[in-house]
């Protein structure tokens, strides 16, 4: 088991992770800290996991479980309001904690709910996917969707505690684990990581890992993300680096219409970003190869080529302006590029480098 | 015209007020600061005022007007979502400003909407009631209602600018002005106010004032409130003093079921608080008289006695736990009391003094 203190500026909390960590929550939360716990989970989280988590919180104070319909179309303020009304009816007050048991979707909906009740009550994350444990909970961005777009409404709100049970994560579907591993590889590519506690040989394409291995991976992701985000809590300056691969990756995710996971789309997006940087003489062939090699290691480039055609990808690229890139003019897009592995390219003191759209189109046409 | 810089901790903004101040907004807002303005107003705000305000913002950038149904039952996240969807459809983005033209209701709904769009875009308050200009906008608490209670969901979000046109305020209904004057008298009673720019003779019971007089009153309320709130931005410590009169006042407001304004209810609540403090040997007869005298000056104790019976008031007092008091045990309530005019009573380092419920009941039974 590992415990790390995470600080977003002056807002700090403990993140405890390891096998069966939930058995130890009494060591972290004083018995009289909260008067009751409201567990919130979307319908995609297995019942057994929700009840398992609730059981341990129930040893500290009364616990209630609220479920909501999963899926992006239900990630709305309307769902948040329903959960808040139910929580109040169950007796929630300023001394109550909201416990988000689930992946990123549950974390965001519960995060918005907790951040607004009585103008902010305690939020506890129990991530049940490796992606949530190693990426989502390492951000205080909370948001829900409008019909006009994803994550358009929200705010910044930190949790009070995070507990990640690596046994639960190790038993989750391999493709879910792979989604998180894609972001882990991103962290390996964008930052200079000294004293790595694992080697590339520890990665595998089956995406089946032991709880102990996942603990090591989470530990790495915490160090990587917090080395940047502890001082850029709004993720608007140096934190933009975590949007690497997202410009084209997000367009691919949209074009594939649910056919691939966010992580897989980002993996492909990173390959394209590397190829583009190479054409612009920013990145060496050797470093482009490092992208292929690492992503193949985790099986992220299997089952590619994509179904969607380059024009469709380019359409979304041109019309979505919500990710980490800037529309500069008609001919260019701002993209996050690398000068080398661990070396973000800087242009005009910003991580966004202008890239000609014709070059982007050309590289997408060529494929992987 | 007066301009004051208001700071809630390190979050500062300019508050400009005076006759026809809207004509001068170009002196405060750089022309390229916002790409468009979305004016939000509830249906209770006169059309002429909304269009008048929109006209001046329209000189700086494109402006759109969104109206929503007024009334507490529509002060919800559902209304907020509707406004956000409409704003996005009109082209709102991170560089857009939301302009709240109205009283406290509009300020809160627009405040919650602005605070969440793209995780927070600029909010500009144009208060059109004296209460909003002298009280509501001097708080960064934003909230909307749940069916289970008022102001149960929200957060803290400061405006970027406040513009109060004292001409508009001077032409508003006298009873609306009186609501604000009750809070002004509260500020006179709870704080030591040196160098007051007006005398008690400047108060009148018709509640008709010139723009210049209202400017002086707003200036006083800013000094009074910010002397405390600039360091207690969450209004949970020294800021609790502004809840003076609210314990019993809020119960009276509920018992009267809309028959009296919030300000009038607080006026009566302050009288009861003074009488209770006197019975507890905390406050002199002379200082109790000061309460009656000042509140009579502004006509706040006219049309009293109340319609509701003492038992009904006591019922709400016992069941509402959302105002600035603490339930201590079965026999006591925590109330904000005074030791003298300008001298809050302190009990155990807190502004909440335990008061026997039997004493509260007795004083309410006796009436004013």
From TrEMBL, chains A, B:
<dbReference type="Pfam" id="PF24621">
    <property type="entry name" value="DHQS_C"/>
</dbReference>
<keyword id="KW-0456">Lyase</keyword>
<dbReference type="GO" id="GO:0009073">
    <property type="term" value="P:aromatic amino acid family biosynthetic process"/>
</dbReference>
<dbReference type="InterPro" id="IPR030960">
    <property type="entry name" value="DHQS/DOIS_N"/>
</dbReference>
<dbReference type="InterPro" id="IPR050071">
    <property type="entry name" value="Dehydroquinate_synthase"/>
</dbReference>
<keyword id="KW-0479">Metal-binding</keyword>
<dbReference type="Pfam" id="PF01761">
    <property type="entry name" value="DHQ_synthase"/>
</dbReference>
<dbReference type="GO" id="GO:0003856">
    <property type="term" value="F:3-dehydroquinate synthase activity"/>
</dbReference>
<dbReference type="InterPro" id="IPR056179">
    <property type="entry name" value="DHQS_C"/>
</dbReference>
<dbReference type="GO" id="GO:0046872">
    <property type="term" value="F:metal ion binding"/>
</dbReference>
<dbReference type="InterPro" id="IPR030963">
    <property type="entry name" value="DHQ_synth_fam"/>
</dbReference>
<protein>
    <submittedName>
        <fullName>2-deoxy-scyllo-inosose synthase</fullName>
    </submittedName>
</protein>
<keyword id="KW-0170">Cobalt</keyword>
<keyword id="KW-0520">NAD</keyword>
<feature type="domain" description="3-dehydroquinate synthase N-terminal">
    <location>
        <begin position="68"/>
        <end position="178"/>
    </location>
</feature>
<feature type="domain" description="3-dehydroquinate synthase C-terminal">
    <location>
        <begin position="180"/>
        <end position="322"/>
    </location>
</feature>
């Amino acid at each position: 088991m590992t415990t790390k203190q995470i600080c977003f500026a002056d807002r700090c909390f403990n993140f405890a992770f390891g096998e069966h960590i939930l058995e130890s929550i009494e060591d972290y939360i004083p018995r009289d800290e909260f008067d009751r716990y409201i567990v919130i989970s979307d319908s995609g989280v297995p019942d057994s996991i929700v009840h398992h988590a609730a059981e341990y919180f129930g040893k500290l104070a009364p616990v209630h479980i609220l479920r909501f319909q999963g899926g992006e179309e239900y990630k709305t303020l309307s769902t948040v309001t329903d959960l808040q009304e139910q929580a109040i009816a169950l007796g929630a007050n300023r001394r109550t904690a909201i416990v988000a048991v689930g992946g990123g979707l549950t974390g965001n909906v519960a995060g918005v709910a907790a951040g607004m009740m009585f103008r902010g009550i305690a939020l506890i994350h129990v991530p049940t996917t490796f992606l949530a444990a190693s990426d989502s909970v390492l951000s205080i961005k909370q948001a829900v969707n409008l019909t006009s777009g994803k994550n358009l409404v929200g705010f910044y709100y930190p949790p009070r505690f995070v507990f990640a049970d690596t046994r639960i994560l190790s038993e989750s579907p391999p493709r879910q684990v792979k989604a998180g591993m894609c972001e882990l590889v991103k962290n390996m590519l964008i930052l200079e990581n000294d004293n790595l506690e694992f080697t590339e040989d520890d990665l595998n394409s089956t995406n089946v890992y032991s709880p102990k291995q996942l603990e090591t991976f989470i530990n790495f992701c915490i160090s990587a993300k917090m080395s940047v985000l502890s001082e850029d809590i709004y993720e608007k300056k140096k934190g933009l680096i975590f949007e690497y691969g997202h410009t084209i990756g997000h367009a691919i995710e949209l074009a594939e219409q649910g056919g691939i996971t966010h992580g897989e789309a980002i993996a492909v997006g990173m390959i394209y970003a590397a190829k583009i940087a190479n054409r612009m003489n920013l990145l060496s062939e050797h470093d482009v190869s490092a992208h292929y090699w690492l992503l193949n290691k985790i099986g992220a480039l299997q089952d590619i080529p994509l179904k969607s055609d380059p024009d469709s990808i380019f359409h979304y690229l041109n019309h979505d302006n919500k990710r980490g890139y800037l529309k500069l003019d008609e001919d260019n897009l701002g993209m996050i590029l690398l000068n080398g592995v661990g070396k973000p390219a800087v242009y005009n003191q910003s991580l966004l480098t202008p890239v000609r759209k014709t070059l982007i189109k050309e590289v997408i046409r060529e494929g992987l």
